[in-house]
Design a protein that fits this description.
This protein has five helices and 14 strands. It is an alpha+beta fold and about 270 residues long. The protein starts with a strand and ends in a 7-residue tail after the last strand.
């Protein structure tokens, strides 16, 4: 499947912000299941870019604005070919699986999540993670605007609703409770319609198989409609854009994501 992405993030500040720096994890890494055809990261203001990799192997583009900023749009466009691997991930790893057993503020367990994990404690790991994915999909309600980027897995699970970020955090936290390494994934799901955010899902490590993707928001493993961009222990490690600034007052943010299937050009 060929996927076309147009991802635009606009920031507006009440007063000019200075020393503005943005860290963008918006460029997919290539692996056996996906290949970049073309990819570009740009801004509508003057500044400089610097590329690097973080501890998780994510591609990071740092943007440094040249001067004070009142409004800025960061633009990500590209094409990628994705193959359906039945959820199996064969990518270069920078950390051992055990590193993804660590707990974070967003993935701390509580009695409710412990009870969810306990439902699958006696099952084989592969069966357990499939069961977790199905249980979260059927037990949680997708609802926009009720949670935020600081909502923990436990709080979202207790509320019974959230967005893809929350579903992924709940899966990751519960899998780790079972001793199964799990990580957060940010990326794009080609829906052929405008979206207000990128997508998020999770991956779990099963011995003798490897890393396997699970999307508890939709109750499936990723297909060739999923473009994997960044990974981490939680949302904060894989967030598409995080930044810092001086001044600026209140900030408003708008995001537009167009991730769609694209026609391949026929060969003469």
């Amino acid at each position: 499947m060929r996927i076309r992405v147009d991802h635009r993030t606009t920031y507006r500040y009440d007063a000019p912000a200075s020393s503005l720096v943005q860290a963008l994890r918006v460029t997919p890494a290539e692996h056996a299941g996906q290949h970049l055809i073309d990819w570009r990261v740009d801004a509508d203001i003057d500044g400089s870019f610097r590329d690097s990799r973080d501890a998780f192997g994510n591609r990071v583009t740092m943007f440094y604005a040249d001067g004070p900023v009142s409004e800025m749009t960061l633009i990500v466009t590209g094409l990628a070919d994705v193959t359906d691997t039945a959820g199996l991930i064969n990518a270069e790893e920078t950390l051992p699986p055990a590193a993804y057993l660590r707990t974070t503020e967003l993935t701390q367990w509580n009695p409710g999540l412990a009870a969810l994990a306990d439902r699958f404690r006696d099952e084989a790991p592969l069966s357990a993670v499939h069961g977790l994915c199905s249980a979260i999909y059927s037990g949680m309600r997708f609802e926009v605007g009720m949670t935020g980027t600081t909502t923990s897995a436990g709080d979202a699970f207790a509320a019974g609703h959230g967005v893809c970020q929350d579903f992924a955090h709940i899966f990751v936290t519960s899998a780790r409770q079972l001793g199964i390494p799990a990580r957060y994934v940010s990326g794009h799901l080609a829906r052929d319609e405008a979206q207000e955010a990128a997508h998020a899902w999770a991956e779990a490590y099963v011995r003798d198989i490897g890393w396997i993707g699970f999307d508890p928001t939709n109750g499936i493993s990723p297909t060739d409609h999923y473009l994997r961009v960044a990974i981490g222990l939680d949302y904060l490690d894989a967030a598409p854009i995080r930044g810092a600034r001086r001044g600026g007052g209140a900030e408003s943010l708008s995001v537009s994501v167009d991730a769609a299937t694209a026609m391949r050009q026929s060969q003469a």
